[in-house]
Write a structure and sequence with these properties.
Elements: H1 13-18, H2 25-37, H3 41-50, E1 61-66, H4 68-74, H5 79-83, E2 86-87, H6 93-98, E3 104-106, E4 113-115, E5 126-127, E6 130-131, E7 138-139, E8 143-148, H7 180-192, H8 197-207, E9 216-221, H9 223-230, H10 237-241, E10 244-245, H11 251-254, E11 261-264, E12 271-277, E13 280-283, E14 286-295, E15 299-304
Parallel strand pairs: 1-8, 9-15
Antiparallel strand pairs: 1-2, 3-4, 5-6, 7-8, 9-10, 11-12, 12-13, 13-14, 14-15
Helix pairs in contact: 2-3, 7-8
Length: about 325
């Protein structure tokens, strides 16, 4: 894979425009007020201080708020440690429950991820072996805040049965006994139950039985993004081919890609440009909403905030003229 990746030396203007809708200051202060009323006084005050520096750089975020006793024990955290407690994603309880143990959650500290450590017997979500409050202390759909009883450890590591990213980062072919139907059935079921039915239909109708020796990666926009972009998705397979990379890449593989890396897709002539904006990893200007939404030994699926378009491309109301429904 490394030999096929080209490097660019600029961030396209559409990357900036796609991320320009930052969290409103009012939402941050509302969250701080709720934290104050909920007994998280230290984090409430800290949130107000760092709001402009950190949270207002992202269109959405999840805050993991340490308790007052954690602040008393550890003292005022550094800016880097605070960034480690902020994820540039709106992680709802339902989305967190879908994440399997070992899944990495990106943070606002560049190059550092949190790790899901929830086991099948746990009722509460656990990250870096620290349980979150069962429900968010604050949730307005874009900014969510969970309570934790101590600070996350920057040096946390876990021994997991999760497949090693090193064996897949080059997308080398490997032997597998998994049947193609089994490979897709599990992915389709997960997509259908997580608001990605359009992409699930595409996998079922167009890609079943077609698995590259090195696997595939699917960047899955939610149904509302798909429908608002192209209308009747069943007629436009080429739209979906641009969201599928002929190589299985887990989130840990993606975060190790260099800025300007180009990922080839199943749509001839269409590549996905990997860049970072304020430490947030984006693909053709679109951030990942749900890393490692699904993965097995042949398929990896990542939920994205919007459809992937080429630079300057839009999807007009007469989008049906852009696609040949019989080209697949």
């Amino acid at each position: 894979m490394a030999s096929s990746l080209a490097l660019l030396f600029f961030i396209p203007s559409f990357v900036l425009s796609s991320l320009c809708h930052a969290l409103p200051r009012e939402a941050v202060f509302d969250a701080a007020d709720v934290l104050l009323d909920s007994g998280f006084v230290s984090m409430a005050l800290t949130l107000e201080v760092v709001a402009e520096t950190l949270l207002e750089q992202s269109p959405s975020a999840t805050v993991f708020a340490p308790s007052d006793s954690a602040f008393k024990k550890s003292g005022q955290p550094s800016l880097d440690l605070l960034r480690f407690h902020l994820a540039p994603l709106p992680l709802t309880p339902s989305s967190l429950r879908l994440l399997s143990a070992g899944t990495g959650i990106p943070t606002m500290l560049p190059g550092q991820s949190l790790t899901v450590t929830t086991s099948s017997s746990d009722r509460a979500t656990s990250i870096n072996n620290i349980k979150l409050t069962p429900s968010p202390i604050y949730d307005d759909g874009f900014l969510l805040v969970y309570g934790i009883d101590r600070f996350f450890d920057l040096n946390f590591q876990i021994n997991s049965q999760r497949p090693s990213s090193d064996s897949n980062s080059s997308c080398s072919a490997k032997n597998s006994t998994t049947a193609a139907s089994d490979t897709f059935n599990s992915a389709i079921q997960t997509l259908q139950t997580s608001g990605h039915s359009a992409v699930a239909s595409f996998l079922g109708m167009q890609l079943s039985g077609v698995v590259e020796p090195s696997g595939i990666t699917v960047f899955a926009p939610a149904d509302d993004s798909v429908m608002s972009s192209i209308g009747d998705f069943d007629q436009y397979p080429s739209f979906f081919r641009r969201h599928v990379v002929p190589c299985r890449l887990l989130w840990n593989d993606l975060v190790n890609l260099g800025d300007g890396s180009l990922l080839p897709t199943f749509l001839d002539g269409f590549s996905i440009n990997v860049t970072r904006f304020d430490g947030v990893l984006v693909f053709n200007g679109v951030p990942v909403f749900f890393p490692d939404l699904f993965f097995n030994e042949r398929v990896a699926v990542h939920g994205v905030n919007d459809v992937l378009a080429a630079q300057g491309e839009t999807f007009p109301e007469n989008a049906k003229n852009l696609f040949d429904p019989f080209e697949f």
